[in-house]
Amino acid sequence: MPALEQELVKNLKERLVKHLESTGGYESIDFVDAGGSAAIFKVQRNDGLRAVKVFNPNLFFGAPAAASKRRLDVQRRLIDHKCPSLIQTYFADESQGTAIIEMEFNDWPQLSKQLGKVPDDAIGRLMGQLVDAVKYLEGMNIVHRDIKPENIHISTDFQELKLLDLGVAREFDNSDENDAAITDAGVGRPFLATAQYSSPEYLFRLDEPTDKLWKGLNFYQVGAVLHDLIKKEALFQYEILLENRWLVARAVLTKQPSFSDTDAKRLSAEKALALRCLTKDLDTRLSLVGWDEFQFNKIDDPLTTLKTKLSKGLGHLGEVSKSTSTARLAYERQEYCTRIFERVRTELIAACGTELPVTMITDYASNPANIAFTVSPEKSILVRIDCDVSWKSGVYEKSALMEAGAMFQSNSSAARHPETPMKACLEMGIGAAEDETVTAIANKVAELVGLALSRIEATGGDASTLQGTSV
């Protein structure tokens, strides 16, 4: 989003002067910077230096107003907070026809400009402070949404940091706020936080705004900062240098970060944690990461450490490296199909009982995956119901279309008939409404079995005449 025009910045300064004069006065005002939605000024007041953010008035009128006012309310809740690693807020309200936020002035440099200078032995302390700030916000039911090195200031001795810029923060459970992936002005970029540091599900709107989404985003963005501290360079720096937003978005979705230094033992625990935090899949990420893992300086005895690792299961050891690979995706798809169709099989067995035994034949590895159910109402005939699960690609690689069809076949062969007519019946996806999916598939198979039984009954006892025909 382009920076504010100079004429507007001048207007915002005039509004700020009126605000300051009506609230105790000031000694000096200096322009600092301007983004796409606000200008920042350094203000000397009687009680000390302030960083004052003055917003574009257009954000508080018309369509953007409701969301802008909600975010202002969030910042107002942080006035006089008690978290030392979170920038302090002194005033947040509407004034002079716009919104003005007075904050602690911090002249430490941005972490993004100091990555190459931060010593390894300071990383644990700094990450602990960042986690404290994020957990403090979580405790207040607030998600920052734009945690990145540019929004973190670090002391010159690398012992302290401050998390800044809560301009796009929101409450976890604000069901009225539908701006999970738009800019603070409602136009421009199709996302709110910086794409480079946005998790895939947040950037591409793959999940609804829920506690689960925000917790996953917190882990991802904090892990990205840890990645940068370890690697001494920004996440997806190559794509950023090319200045191609499509390549950046593709990297967020598909490129697994790695550490290229030759010393495998250097910060090995920190590297492993960063990669777990940057796992592409939201559910996998949440199962692999907890805030307690950022206590790098905590020393446990080896038995306690081993017990903690094993409590998470061994699967996570290779999880991250495979999360975006073909093998990992195939594994997730197969696990999903197995889970769904085993439940369908259970439903069918419960319905058919011993009077009509149900057999399931599976080929989960292919695409489309094929799952078949067979029943044999009479000795001379077998009914085979085929379910094909065709997986999609790209952003929708965890969604699939299911088609179903049924044929009458000889009881001597359960192999799939090459002329089975298939008809699309539902769309399904990993992690999406599994109970409803199981019910829909079981009902479809039951419908086809019922049709088959009716046709067999209509033959008057010579069901063999149906062999080779579709149900």
UniProtKB/TrEMBL annotation:
Keywords: Kinase, Serine/threonine-protein kinase, Transferase
Span of domain Protein kinase: 26-304
Pfam families assigned: Pkinase
GO MF, one example: protein serine/threonine kinase activity
Highest taxon in the source lineage: Bacteria
Name of this protein: Serine/threonine protein kinase
Lineage of the species this protein comes from: Bacteria, Pseudomonadati, Pseudomonadota, Betaproteobacteria, Rhodocyclales
